[in-house]
Structures are given as C-alpha cells and as structure tokens.
Amino acid sequence: MSKKNNLFANLKSDFASGLVVFLVALPLCLGIAMASGAPLFSGIISGIIGGIVVGYLSTSHISVSGPAAGLTAIVLTAITDLGAFDIFLTAVFIAGLVQLILGFVKAGSISNYFPTNVIEGMLAGIGIIIILKQLPHAFGYDNDFEGDQAFSQIDGSNTFSTLFSIFDYIQIGSIVITLVSMVILISWDKVPFLKKLKLVPGALIAVALGVILNEIFIASGSALAIGKEHLVSLPVPSSFEEFKAIIVTPNLSGVMNPKVWVVALTIAIVASIETLLSIEAADRMDVQKRYTDTNMELKAQGIGNMVSSLLGGLPLTSVIVRSSANSNSGAKSKMSTIIHGSLLLVSVLAIPVILNKIPLATLAAILILVGYKLAKPATFKHFWEKGKYQFVPFIATLLAVVFLDLLKGVTLGIIISIIFVLKGNLKRAYFFRKEQYADGDVIHIDLAQEVSFLNKAAIKQTLNHLPENSKVIIDAKDTVYIAHDILDLIHEFKTTRALDNNIKVKLKGFKKAYHLENSIDTQNHVTIEHYYDAAKRVMVKKEVKDEEFLKQENSN
After folding, report:
1. Of 498, 499, 494, which Cα lies nearest the Cα of 530?
2. Which residue of 98, 178, 293, 419 has the lowest C-beta tally within 10 Å?
3. CB neighbours of 495 closer than 8 A, spacing ≥ 6?
4. Residues 13 and 19: beta-carbon distance below 8 Å
5. C-alpha distances in angstroms, 146 versus 32, 188, 207, 288?
6. How far, in Å, CA of 57 to CA of 3, rounded?
7. What residue spans in the chain does CATH classification 3.30.750.24 cover?
C-alpha cells in the first residue's frame, strides 16, 4: 500500500481527531508565544509547521508537534539576550540543523533507555498539571497564559496560590459554559446514539455551544456574558500588507554571534530530549502499539525547526498535551496531525474573527478531561501493586514534574530507577541457602543469570562470613555471564581463605567460556578446570552426603 493510501485510510476518525487537536492547539500556540515574549503569530506558525511538515515526515502515528511550554523560559531569555527576534530565528535554524545531524548519527536511540514507570510518571504528572492549570480558566480566572506548565508562574504566584485566588475572580458565565461543556464531552463517550457520531467530535459540539451560549448572554445583556479577556485572542490582520508584516525571517548576520550558537545548542538539546520523551509517551498511548523511528523523528523535528524559523515561527517539539488529546480522540494515523496543522492554517487566514469568540472555559473543560485520562487513579493503583521498585520512581517522577519541570522530573525518576537496579543487582546476584544433613551443614550459593562487578562486594562479604569447617557449593549452572572480578574472587577464596579455615568448596556449572582455564591453584598445582570437571561429575546426583562430599573433595 502506498504512503498516500496509508494517510487516507482512516480519514473519518483522523479528521475528527485532528479537529479536536486543532481546538486544543490554538490557544496553546498563542499562550506559549505570549509567554515567550515573541509575536503571537509565531506560535501559530510553529503549530502549522509542526502539524503539516513534521507530521508528514515523522513515522509517529499519534504524536503532535508544535511550540512547547518547556522551551518558554529558554526562548524568553534568548530573545532578550540576543536583542532581536530575527536574530533569535537564526539560532532556531541552527538548532534544527543540529537536530538533523543528531538524527543521522542515530542519537534517537537513547529513548530506549527511558524506564516505563518514569514515562508513566511523567504522563501522570503532566495530567495533574493540566487539571491544576485549567481549573482557574474553568472558573473564569485567566491570569496565567494558556499552556503554562511551570509551578512558579511569571506573575510571581504559583499553581496552588492561583487556585486559591479563583474565589476572588469567579465568572458565573464561565462556570456555566464549563459545566455544559463537561456534560457534552462526557455524554459523547457514554450515550450510545451519540457515540455513533464519530465524524463530529464532542469537543466541536462543546465549543460551538459555548460560543452560542456566550453570544446569547451578550445579546441579552446578561451578567453571565464572558468578556473579551476570557476568550481566544488571535491576531486579525486587516489587510494583506499587514499579514505580510507578521512574517519575520531570520537575520543571518547572527551566525557570527557566539551567543546565537549557545542558544542554538541549548534549544537543540532540550527540544530533542523533550521530543524523545514525548515520542516514548505517545507510543505507549497508541492502542495499536506501533513504534516510532526516533532517529527519523529527530530528522523530522530538525527540518521542522528550520522551516519554522524561515517563516518566523517558534522552536517546536513533540508535545504531550496535544498528543494525548489526539490519542484520546481516536486518531488512527499521522493524518490527524496533518489535518490539525492544515486547520490551523486555514482558520487563521479565513475565520480568525469566529475563533476569537471561543470561551477559554470551554477549552479548559476539554483539557481537564485530557488531564484526567493521563492521571487516572487506575494508573496509581497499577504501579502501587507492582511494588516499591516500580512505584517509587513513578511517584517521584510525577511529583518532580509537577513541582519542578518535565526534564528534572524525568532525570530524578531515571536516577532513582538506576539506584534500584544497582541495589537489586547487588541483592539478587546469588541465592543463599543452607541444608542440614546427617553429618553437618552444606551451604549452597546459587549464582544468578548475570553476575557483574557490581556484585563483588556482596559476594565477598558472604564468602568472608562463612563459618569454619563448613561445606560450600557455589553453583553457576544457570549463569550466562560472570565477570572476571567475581571469578578471581571465587578462585582466591577457594585457594586461600577456604584452606586456612578448613572450608570445603565445590564449584558447579562453571564453564570454559569464563576464560579461566589457565588460572593456577598454587596450593595443589592443578588448573581450575580440574575443579570444574569434578563439579560436573557430581551434578548427575541430586545431592551428596557429607562423607561423599569430603571424599570427592579430597580426591582432587
């Protein structure tokens, strides 16, 4: 089947999904541009390029790209330091070029090392952020910009203090429209005959009804009428010349400025990491469980950033909020992403006045449900039941994402996961058991499948605490890999301390592949291989009595 046929194979469901993502992306693009200190239209341009260009080049079926909240602080600082937006665009172009190179050198492979519990913790954290950030908009308090994910806000307040401030700025009209939108969105998935109307997404009905209700409030002079400051605010050019003035192109003289290169590398690294995290999350949300070529994704993002900069757009990444909305709306292929970008382009050119009538309260209702689906109680229960080694990195990532930021949260989660892996390695390198026989104890030390140098301290401590005059079997029959450090440790124990303390040692299952055939036992002048052969001979028996153990050991 051709690429074209693949793109149009699920047009019905993809169009509905693309429409929902378009409605979510519109205020986010504007809000992120505003917070970045960039022209408002630059956010829309970035969203269009992310949808059409990156959407077409990417191999991801669910992911949606556009301006990212995680880059807001970097962009704001960079524009200020560089002194002009057109010079900043040069840095974005270079960043895109760097990402393209990263794709060719296969840097996208690092995404394979993101633990599942950390990715799920990141998603749940983003879900909680969405809910906390959208609640003020649902009540009519629109002090913070759309798309903000930072705990500490630009105005000096934070996520929690803003929630407490809601009660001083309640807009009854916004609450009414939020509740009506919520009822529609929930009913659309629950009521049987409404579920059949897949081509018309519930989000579109909610937005349309929100606009109509507010127009009725305004026409009737009701106190419920929502003011302009609580609606979408898209720039409306009055002429073609005014529209052309919106498009800013890069000032290539900035190439010689060292600061431009620092900004470019910073954007390239942060945008690439955020993209890889989002792609990993999007693949987990894909009900068909398809996997994205992450190296191709870096190339697509690089080309997207280069094109965006040439048209005056912000840097872009794959973004979780829009990807989640896309997945939840039933997207089947990347056509939904392309449709969302196309709708952004057509709407800002043809119907900006209508878009500026959309209440932010309606969009808040849509996003709150997206947030809930990311942070469902079932997810917390799932990782709690998996035990502390899965739950602790999950919850630590979640909290750090909420209170710090996405990258710091994921970094903390990965660090905790690594610590647990190392701790687990140290503990699980061997299984220790003791059995009672008629003439004494025989201690068994069964080595695990893989025994690395990280296990050396634990095994050394165990061997050093073996009692005098004991009998020990060290069993490696199930071991696939054993480090030289461990082999040397066992050899030294058998040929020195074991003899000094009258500890009888038997080795089982050690293979020639461990490359110690030529290690010499200085006490008896025989090779370690001889010990292995003796061990193999007794492996045919289920167990041996104490006298047999001593007899076979003395025969060596």
Report:
1. 494
2. 419
3. 521, 522, 523
4. no
5. 7, 25, 16, 31
6. 11
7. 442-508
Q: Across-strand partners of 66? A: 317
- Estimate to the nearest angstrom the gap between the alpha carbon of 390 and the chain centroid: 16
Distance CA 349, CA 334 (A): 23
340 contact partners, CB below 8 Å, separation of at least 6: 18, 19, 21, 22, 25, 51, 55, 64, 322, 326
CA 549 vs CA 230, 441, 478, 487, 523: distances in Å = 85, 11, 22, 22, 20
DSSP structure string for 217-266: HHHTT-TTPPPGGGB------SSHHHHHHH-----GGGGG-HHHHHHHHH
Cα dihedral: 119, 125, 126, 131 (round 10): 150
Position 275 scores a pLDDT of 94
Q: Three-state secondary structure along 337-351?
A: HHHHHHHHHHHHHHC
Q: Supply the pTM of this predicted model.
A: 0.75
In the predicted model, residues of the chain with pLDDT beneath 70 are 1-6, 192-199, 239, 424-441, 511-556
Express each pLDDT in 285-342 by its tens digit: 888 888 889 999 999 999 999 999 999 999 999 999 999 999 988 888 999 999 999 9
| pLDDT reported for residue 434 | 56
Homologous superfamily assigned to 442-508: STAS domain (3.30.750.24)
